[in-house]
Amino acid sequence: MPTGQARAAWRRLLAVGERAWDGLRNLTTSSPARFAVLVFASLILVFTALLSLPAATYGERLPLADALFMAVSTICVTGLATVDVATTFTPLGLVIIFIGVNIGGMGVLTLASILGLIISKRLGLRAKLIAASDTNPLRSHGGPVNEGQAVRLGEVGQLLRTVALSTLVIEAAVAIALWPALVLAGIGPLEALWEAPFYAAMAFTNTGFTPNVGGLEPFADDYILLTILMIAVFLGSIGFPVIYALWKNVWHVKAWSLHTKLTLITTSVLFVAGAAAFLTLEYDNPGTFGSMDAWDTTFQAFFLSAMTRSGGFSVVDIGELNGSSLVVGSMLMFVGGGSASTAGGIKVTTLAVLALAVWSEAKGRQSVEVFGRRIPSDVQRVALSVVAWGATIVALSTITIAQITKAPVDEVLFDVISAFGTVGLSTGLTAELPDSAVYVQAVTIFMGRIGTVTLAAAVAASSRSQLYSLPVERPIVG
């Protein structure tokens, strides 16, 4: 090719690249939610390819359905698996999973904001609002929202640094605490040097993968190790905004935002209520708590309650739980953890807002008020929308998988909610799913992780202002 033609072709190639780069930059500022979905979808494809490498698994490489599902479960920090992680993946495969859960654990919008900052060299006003909404998902919506309930725009950069720093510090501290516990439990010192940070990452990101054969069953009586895992799961499930708020005002409760108070109170109530329910329903079940003494039963009830909130670790066989306990576990998993956390579900603040709205309506109050603050009506509408979308996703996935597998509905519902809430607990059904049901379960995980609010914002073409109001007419409700 002559030199002139080569230069012209090179200039055209550069022009195409610049247009594509400008389009990506515009996407980060005009629609951060869509960009977040694009980021997670791209990461899933990358990790599907990585987990498909022959060096990542023992024996034959993973089939496409299993590789895709494991990539989704890794990036979406879920912990559900169609294969045995400990016996299927080589050390390289476990390293890939370790990296993936830490990337996914940073959160959809937080990760999108960081990458958007790198691409566009700045965070636009709308992107900052979305990043602030990762601190409080209700912040970006219209209506009078008290600034004390959200991170201010100038603090977004500091919040993003806090996310990365807190992840590193907490996982390192948990790994240091786990190493002697693993050694005392019979794991070799050198092997524990790898397993400790792996367990730390799986606990803080609320994933639940285990690198050793048998999972946590060999440590069923090691209350020190299990307690450390529960603490790490709790820190990951309350959310980075709460960690940020506690770091700034750990001893000044009055300075805590309403979001922080609702998250901590609701999380604590569900933790205790869940443990009490499991204790009552499983104390005489020979397959779970029936063979344990009173202390063991109580501790394991609290551990199971913590893990059904999104932790994903299990000591007892979930498939042996009574049907009533599966229902309780499904309810806890559907709620999940805190907003902008490594946990999934509809989030505890969503439940708190709806509970407060129902209570205010029952008391005949005109507005929803708590801790000296008023929760605006648009926040209540968003909370209701999140529950409605979440219930719709769970219902459609349950119906589809139940039709494909003909499995008992209670088992299907439990595993589907575990997928939607990115929990990772399973009755054993997920590992036996045919490929068609595996893909349905993978889509459920993806939609549960990116969040119903983010998904709605991503598919919405634009927000239109309505400069008029229609006449009011009240239909009969109830």
What would you say this structure looks like, in words?
The chain is an all-alpha fold and 478 residues long. The chain has one domain (18-456). The chain is 65% helix and 1% strand. It has 19 helices and 2 strands. Strand 1 (368-370) and strand 2 (373-375) form a beta hairpin. Helix 2 crosses helix 3 and helix 16 (377-405) crosses helix 17. The model is unreliable at 133-151 (pLDDT under 50).
Salient structural properties:
single chain, 478 residues, mainly alpha, two-stranded antiparallel ribbon, 19 helices, 2 strands, transport
**Uncertain parts:** 133-151
Name the helicity range.
55-70%
Strand order of the largest sheet: 1-2
Which radius of gyration do the C-alpha atoms yield? 23 Å
Taking the sheet with the most strands, its summary is: 2 strands, antiparallel
The helix-strand sequence is HHHHHHHHHHHHHHHEEHHHH
Mean pLDDT, all residues:
82
Question: In what range is the share of β-strand residues?
Answer: under 5%
Distance between the termini: 77 Å
Give the helix tally: 19
What is the total tally of β strands?
2
- So what's the overall shape? globular
How many domains make up the coordinates?
Answer: 1
Structural class: mainly alpha
Helices and strands in order, then pairings?
Elements: H1 3-30, H2 32-51, H3 64-75, H4 85-88, H5 91-105, H6 108-120, H7 125-135, H8 156-184, H9 189-204, H10 223-238, H11 240-248, H12 258-282, H13 294-311, H14 323-335, H15 348-362, E1 368-370, E2 373-375, H16 377-405, H17 409-420, H18 435-450, H19 452-459
Antiparallel strand pairs: 1-2
Helix pairs in contact: 1-2, 1-6, 2-3, 2-5, 2-6, 2-19, 3-18, 5-9, 6-7, 8-9, 8-10, 8-11, 9-10, 10-13, 11-12, 12-13, 12-14, 12-15, 13-14, 14-17, 15-16, 16-17, 16-18, 17-18, 18-19
